[in-house]
Design a protein that fits this description.
Elements: H1 24-27, H2 38-46, H3 51-58, E1 65-72, E2 83-87, H4 92-103, E3 112-115, H5 127-134, E4 140-146
Length: 152
């Protein structure tokens, strides 16, 4: 019995060669001398050379601490300090822990917090991100709280 031709290895199909030739763009991607249009080169010259520094500043919050305004809903007791400063890098769980401690709520009882009386954010949501998206005209983050489910 004759052996198959060398171009028909095990699992290969007969026919024209279907392999994709190497792209000249991929071969030269390590080259620093890529041609650019004038508009692209102008834009690229304005970017910082160190991308790490640019990315570090991109996630920074404009304020180190933000003001949170607590509003009781329903039968929830009011707290003495309606306005509280919270570090913008803290997670929302720190706001919940502060309010539970202030209201002296037992571990078995629930407290429900809502941003702008609309939705309950996740506990791992960053307070600065919530403030950035949902602050009011006074730059306060409004947090409504209740001891029973109040909204949606």
């Amino acid at each position: 019995m004759a052996s198959p031709p060398p171009n028909l290895a095990a699992g290969a199909s007969p026919g024209p060669d279907t392999s994709v030739p190497a792209s000249p763009v991929l071969e030269g991607r390590d080259s620093p001398d890529l041609p650019l249009t004038m508009t692209a080169s102008t834009v690229l010259m304005a970017l910082p050379r160190d991308a790490t520094a640019a990315l570090a500043a991109a996630g920074a919050f404009p304020l180190e601490k933000i003001v949170v305004r607590f509003k009781p809903v329903g039968s929830a007791p009011p707290i003495r300090r309606e306005l509280v400063k919270v570090a913008s890098a803290h997670k929302f769980e720190s706001v919940v822990a502060y309010l539970r401690k202030t209201l002296k709520v037992a571990d078995s009882e629930s407290v429900f917090l809502y941003i702008n009386s609309t939705f309950a954010p996740a506990l791992d949501e960053v307070v600065g991100n919530l403030w950035r998206c949902f602050k009011d005209s006074n730059d306060h983050l409004n947090v409504a709280y209740s001891v029973t489910p109040a909204f949606g």
